[in-house]
Every structure is written in structure tokens, then in C-alpha cells.
Design a protein that fits this description.
By secondary structure, the protein is of the alpha/beta class. The chain has 14 helices and ten strands. It is 44% helix and 15% strand.
């Protein structure tokens, strides 16, 4: 405090020019560092201390010094977790379907969805799960394409995974394409389990530059989607197996759905299989062991004090299951079952 500050004509000269100065002296251009500085660094002005301005910072600085010891451990912990999350996401993916963790915006702060998207990406999320409900196919009524478009404008890099619990999913496809959704999953039950209609809708979704997925309620058998997946190429990119009844968040995980996941994984080793409903670090282990590689979690992530650690735990569940369960073993004898767009 109280020391004048010399401002150079090139603001970066003192820091960035150090190596150049030393190189110039070593090359014999100047007899010593002092001579090099005198020739190459030029003062522009001098900033003199202003006690009245300095006094304005006294209270905030005192508060910072008082709170830093309590926050130091937390900041270091978050730094380590962030580093490990980045390392995990940047690590070589390995063979087979990749782990994708998708926080569900149904459990987010509905008045600050764009901010919640940014927060979840910073916490290590791979995708953001966007539930679009029409109040008819399910009792609940949520957001639509205009909100998705706003989210895209605020988070251009986000993967927006849209799940349509709607009686007329085809009526939303154009709007979601305009909103630049990344993926659109529709319910086969909304189409009366009509395979031809489902294949046509999936083709339309893909033609608009989005991934296509098909969702199954807990009571819908997996055989319904076999014709879509057996097509060459596969008609859809992902199958969503709901482990709760669609319409509301916060329900309990239905373990009875897991045999469906296992049947799909054994038949289609390269398929993205998504599980949504009641997913937390405990149930994620069961879902991943059954064969799910895309996990949607709402309350478990948004309700956590440390969302990054929950996301990391969910990802570890899938990675651990891939290492312990021979997911790729069927590829040796059933290469035709691979989805070309997985």
C-alpha cells in the first residue's frame, strides 16, 4: 500500500517480455538486463495511490480474509472433483456403448432453467434430459419447443435430450428441429405400438438432424421395438426404458423393469439403452449391471449438495459395469446386432 505503480506502453511487457529480454542479453544485443530493460520497456504513466479508493476495499477484503479459511477446503475439494470429472470425460472411451449421465431438468429450478443447464454442464453432465409433457398422454404439463430454443441459445454446446410424453409426438418434431434439439425420444404407446408409424417418425426425426429414440413404459414389453432395432440400418438410436410411470419426478425405482434392459442389451450390444426414473447412485449400479449406459437422474442430482460427486458416481457405475459385465462378448458371435448409429 502507498507504492506508486508504473504503467508501461505495452501492458504485457513486464511479464511477457522477460524471456525476450534475457534472450537479447544472451545474444549480446545488450551488456546486461538493466540495459535491455531501459531500451525495450517504456513507461507510459505512473498511477499514484488514492487512499479514499483504497478504503472502499477494506471491508470486502476483511470479509474475504475472514471467510477464506472456512472455504479453502471446499474450494480445493471442488477443484479435485472437477479435475477428476474432466479427466474421466476426456479419457479414451473404450469399446462399446459409452456412459452418458443426463440430469433431468424436471427436477431443476424451473425459473432458471438456462442457469441450471450451465451449472450441470460445469458439474460434469454429458447430456441434459428435457421432459416435454402435454397433460394428455400423462397428467403433468411441462415445457415445449420455445423453451428448448431458449436453452439452446444460452447453451450452444449442450446436448439436449428431449423425451416426449405426448399423445401427438409428430406434431412437436418440426418445432424441436427449429429449436435445435439434439435428440428426440417418443413413446411407442403414443402411436398404438404401430411399428410402421414409429419407424416413419424416427426417420423424420433423423432427417431433421436429430437422434431418434423410442421410449417404453414399465409395462410395455421390449419385443415391441425389436422390428425397429432389427432393421438395417437400425430405425432408432436409443431405447428409453422407464423405471417409473411417466408424468412425475421423484418416484421410486422399479427393479421389475431391469430384465427388459438385460434382454435389450443381450440382443443389441451396441445400442444406447437409457434408464429414467428413481435413478440414484444405489439404483444406478443395478441399472448399469443390467445393461443401461445412459442414466437420467433428477432429484438425486439437483437435490444433492455436491452434484458433481453424484454425477461422477453414476458414471462410475456404468464404467464399472462395463468392466465387470461382458457387454461386448455377444459381438463375437452376433455382429449383425450392432446399431450403426450407436
Amino acid at each position: 500500500a502507498g507504492v506508486p505503480f508504473k504503467r508501461t506502453k505495452c501492458a504485457d511487457a513486464p511479464a511477457l517480455g522477460a524471456a525476450i529480454l534475457l534472450a537479447a542479453v544472451a545474444a549480446g544485443c545488450y551488456p546486461d538486463v538493466a540495459a535491455a530493460v531501459a531500451a525495450m520497456v517504456h513507461d507510459d504513466s505512473v498511477v499514484h495511490p488514492r487512499p479514499e479508493v483504497h478504503a472502499l476495499y477494506a471491508a470486502p477484503y476483511a470479509a474475504y480474509k475472514a471467510t477464506y479459511p472456512a472455504l479453502k477446503a471446499l474450494m480445493h475439494q471442488q477443484g479435485r472433483q472437477g479435475g477428476s470429472a474432466v479427466a474421466a470425460k476426456d479419457a479414451p472411451p473404450g469399446p462399446g456403448p459409452q456412459a452418458r449421465i443426463c440430469p433431468s431438468l424436471l427436477a431443476a429450478d424451473q425459473g432458471n432453467l438456462a442457469g441450471e443447464v450451465s451449472r450441470m454442464l460445469a458439474e460434469g453432465a454429458d447430456w441434459l434430459h428435457v421432459d416435454i409433457m402435454d397433460g394428455h398422454f400423462v397428467p403433468n404439463l411441462t415445457i415445449g419447443p420455445p423453451v428448448v430454443e431458449h436453452l439452446r441459445s444460452q447453451a450452444p454446446e449442450a446436448f439436449l435430450d428431449c423425451h416426449l410424453s405426448c399423445s401427438n409426438p409428430a406434431g412437436l418434431v418440426d418445432g424441436l428441429s427449429k429449436a435445435k434439439a439434439s435428440s428426440v425420444t417418443f413413446h411407442t404407446e403414443a402411436l398404438g405400438n404401430d411399428v410402421v408409424a414409429a419407424a416413419a417418425l424416427a426417420a423424420r426425426i433423423r432427417s431433421l438432424g436429430m437422434r431418434a429414440g423410442v421410449a417404453l413404459k414399465p409395462g410395455t414389453p421390449e419385443e415391441i421395438v425389436f422390428p425397429l432395432l432389427d432393421a438395417s440400418p437400425s430405425a432408432v438410436d436409443m431405447v428409453l426404458c422407464l423405471t417409473v410411470e411417466p408424468g412425475f419426478g421423484g418416484q421410486s425405482f422399479m427393479h421389475s423393469v431391469l430384465p427388459k434392459v438385460t434382454a435389450l442389451r443381450r440382443r443389441y450390444p451396441g445400442l444406447d439403452i437409457q434408464v429414467d426414473g428413481g435413478v440414484n447412485p444405489l439404483t444406478a449400479a443395478a441399472a448399469a449391471a443390467a445393461g443401461a449406459n445412459v442414466l437420467v437422474a433428477g432429484s438425486a442430482v439437483f437435490g444433492a449438495q455436491d452434484p458433481a460427486s453424484v454425477i461422477a458416481a453414476l458414471r462410475d457405475a456404468v464404467i464399472g459395469a462395463k468392466e465387470q459385465m461382458p457387454w461386448l462378448a455377444p459381438l463375437l458371435c452376433q455382429p449383425q446386432m450392432l446399431s450403426p448409429r450407436s
